[in-house]
Hints:
The chain crosses the membrane at residues 16-38, 65-85. This is ABC transmembrane type-1 domain-containing protein. It comes from marine metagenome. Keywords: Membrane, Transmembrane, Transmembrane helix. The protein is an all-alpha fold. The chain folds into 2 domains: 1-65, no CATH class; 66-108. 72% of the residues lie in helices and 0% in strands. It has 6 helices and no strands. It has helices at residues 9-36, 41-44, 49-54, 56-60, 67-94, 101-107. The chain is extended.
Amino acid sequence: MTRTLRQPISLRASSAIFLAFWCLLAAFPIFWITVMSFKEPVEAFSSNPLQVIFGPLTRARGKGLSLLDMAAGLALIVVVTRLALRWLPGMVRSYTPWNQPWLSWLVC
């Protein structure tokens, strides 16, 4: 890319920060629904926000997520992300019909 078309570093950084913030903001409802699906109804509808977030009643009944469950979920997310970023593009390129990679990404 030529030097005249390259964006300044401040614009790229501010765009990246805004995009990261927007992704977190957009993903929050999905995260909240997922977390609430593991809660007891008493805690999910509690007026105390700390009771909703930490869920002592759910943990006492053994129905909440443990640290091991959370670590396993995080490990799964990391593995799937690495596969999607490293393995999947190569597979799409290898199965591309008529040298049209965009078509393979649509099917994928």
